[in-house]
Amino acid sequence: MRNRQEPSVVTHPLVHRLIENIEKVVVGKKREIELSLIALLSGGHVLLEDVPGVGKTMMVRALAKSVGADYKRIQFTPDLLPSDVTGVSVFSQKTMEFHFRPGPVMSNIVLADEINRTSPKTQAALLEALEEGSVTTDGETRELQDPFMVMATQNPIEYGGTYPLPEAQLDRFLFKFKIGYPSKSEELEVLNRVEKRHPIEEVTPVLTLEDIIDMKKDVKKVFVNEKVKEYIINIVNATRQHHAVYLGGSPRASIALMKAGQAYAFMQDREFVVPDDIKYLAPYALQHRILLNSDAKLSDTTNERVIHEVIQQVHIPAGKESVR
């Protein structure tokens, strides 16, 4: 079985070209780039949790520029209002009518920076956009552009001035993962690249939004065998039965894991999902969707450890009948 920490060898030519372009800016983070693209191609969203300065913003910007996407950044602060995210209707003295002024969420790729520094009310303004792909303001529902993806960053919850995201909002994110510090050699490469000019300034599109839309359609055609679906359900159900878990993964978690598996198989130029795909993606898709009980918290048990135990316990379907 493939180690869940190792990135795969992406063989789809368009996706491979996209990854290479992003790596001109982001050093040594192929796995994180790969996971972000899985989210983009499956219609999901990403939550990046890490300390400031490790390259979260640069990765999002490089991805947006690489596909020629409309990109907006929302800096979440304690005084940010929901209308600052979704948009607001402004009265025009000339026409004597109200005109809608779109908020930054109405873009292709949105960076929700430090999302846990704003109030729960403003955090909730993203819920409809994350799940429905639309926003409702002044009683009118407006569809968002396709493709649409939110990449939210948050500081570790132990930092001062943060508001933990509610379970309902966490469940809307396909993946949660960390960027992490670079190695010494990678950090040296970063310094060399930015010494005279930042590489983000030289990134140009290698794909179009139409390419992304077409690939998203192809992702939905990737076959998922009943045995693989059962494997997904068994993993999610096992999170509900684990002795350390108060609230396990929901059916939305099963759907998310299946869609992520389809995108992952597509990126490897396969027409079907294999159990190994699900095993690799499960930690990133499930760790933020469970709540530990009080005993587990007191014993320093982590969400990551629980998901690892679940994956090890659930039987993996074997044989050709499990994939085709």
TrEMBL record:
<feature type="domain" description="ChlI/MoxR AAA lid">
    <location>
        <begin position="238"/>
        <end position="309"/>
    </location>
</feature>
<dbReference type="InterPro" id="IPR011703">
    <property type="entry name" value="ATPase_AAA-3"/>
</dbReference>
<dbReference type="InterPro" id="IPR027417">
    <property type="entry name" value="P-loop_NTPase"/>
</dbReference>
<dbReference type="InterPro" id="IPR050764">
    <property type="entry name" value="CbbQ/NirQ/NorQ/GpvN"/>
</dbReference>
<keyword id="KW-0547">Nucleotide-binding</keyword>
<dbReference type="InterPro" id="IPR041628">
    <property type="entry name" value="ChlI/MoxR_AAA_lid"/>
</dbReference>
<comment type="similarity">
    <text>Belongs to the MoxR family.</text>
</comment>
<dbReference type="Pfam" id="PF07726">
    <property type="entry name" value="AAA_3"/>
</dbReference>
<dbReference type="GO" id="GO:0016887">
    <property type="term" value="F:ATP hydrolysis activity"/>
</dbReference>
<feature type="domain" description="ATPase AAA-3">
    <location>
        <begin position="45"/>
        <end position="175"/>
    </location>
</feature>
<protein>
    <submittedName>
        <fullName>MoxR-like ATPase</fullName>
    </submittedName>
</protein>
<dbReference type="Pfam" id="PF17863">
    <property type="entry name" value="AAA_lid_2"/>
</dbReference>
<dbReference type="GO" id="GO:0005524">
    <property type="term" value="F:ATP binding"/>
</dbReference>
<keyword id="KW-0067">ATP-binding</keyword>
